[in-house]
Prior knowledge:
alpha+beta; Diaminopimelate Epimerase, Chain A, domain 1; 4-stranded mixed beta sheet; 2 helices; about 35% strand; 2-methylaconitate cis-trans isomerase; PrpF-like; signal; isomerase activity
Amino acid sequence: MGKLHHAMMGTAAVAIACAAAVEGTVVNIAAGGGVRDGVTFGHPSGTLKVGAVASKSNDSWSVDRAIMSRSARILMEGWVRVPSDTF
Length: 87
């Protein structure tokens, strides 16, 4: 997977993955060219991996599958005080 470092929303990232899956597009070339099944974006909370499978039939491209995965991050950290007579 090629790496492009930009913060971005999921919908836009999946659209870019679809464009990267089509050989010869500007996005495909920017991601490293050739047959690509995904790209990884860096963002403030970690990484966003997106992928797509595209196929060509009768000079027309279609996206057969799109995939998105985000890195995990800590959402909350802290203490909870529960009275001892609760249990």
